[in-house]
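Sequence in, structure out.
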Amino acid sequence: MWAGKVISEATKDIAVVQQAAQNVLLVDTIIRSGEEEGSSHHATVENSADHLCCYIRAMVRGEHLLSSFTREALQKKLDPNFGEPERTSILALLYTPGDAETHLSPKLWCGLVNGKVRVFDGIMWTLEKEFVQAKKSLSCLTAVGRKQVWVGSYEICIIETETIQSKRILSDHGEFVIDIIAVDDSRYVYSASVNGVIIRWYVKGLTVANRIALDMSAGETLRSLQHAQGYLWCGVWKGIWKINKSGEILAKLSFDIPRSAVSVNPVEMECFHIMENGQIWAGCRRDGTIVVMDTKNGGKIMGEPIKLEAKGISIMVKLKNRMWIGTKSGIMYVVDIETRAKIKDLKAHYDAVRALCCADDRYVISGAGSSDGKIIIWSPTDSRSASGRFLLE
């Protein structure tokens, strides 16, 4: 119990105390029941009890010893898997700011690999009782206006934000939906599936405005979709395709990292982010390398790659003049966009970072794979400079 309290205070995770209290009761039950010689675990009662003392082992591993930058940035840990029969990965996060006119409170939406959408109150960070079960698994959560959240799965599930209930199911894709983006003040929504089908939806009537079928005969798989500069940008393993609203491919930007810069083969792109100035930050699937591509110059790589200590780059989100980068090693990196210098690394996840979102400009929120299965709320505000000095000194 003491070990759980130490880790809970260090990591700002109240669920650890609750779990430690349950473990204490279980240990007591195992020891008492094992005292009888006829019990099945009489000879191994100490090993059985020790197995439940997971927070003592966590202290031995030093999980309560966080770096100064991590301690200052970490605001709170949440556990969307609490009470679940097994821990699952967090694949999508979405913060909705609420609406004062309709008295709708802010919410944090969390999509789990088992297809369940859990919701936290965005003020007290308490877990709501209501949840929505999507079909099998899910890929993304997208706010459409203030009244709807669209969930990408083997179909599109539309949730009402006020009631946290499924309103409508759209099954037009027929394949797994990997991305959903709202455009034109949520008048239209684009959805994309792995087989290269992109559908433009008219939100008011939930009707199909037009349908694009990309040629994927070369064996490519559509991985992600973004909208910028009036075009659609499609992420595949080998790079990014720029297409217009009619589906015409205008350019193919290759993810050409010099072989000398990476230690893996083949070199594949996991994620990308388009900047307002036309630059694209693209992260490597199995290596901690990020390149910056120039869309105004045919996708040519600008300058030297950004090298991070990681097994791969999983996701990126921009906040002001910084890029927050989640890695497959579980480390969060914060990089200055202009200088490309690493500002800090944050180590509090124990599995790959799978999801990222921003809560306005107040927080960056991350979610991790099943070995961790936790959400962390980070403060983007600096109390120290890159040299380690306090900013008010």
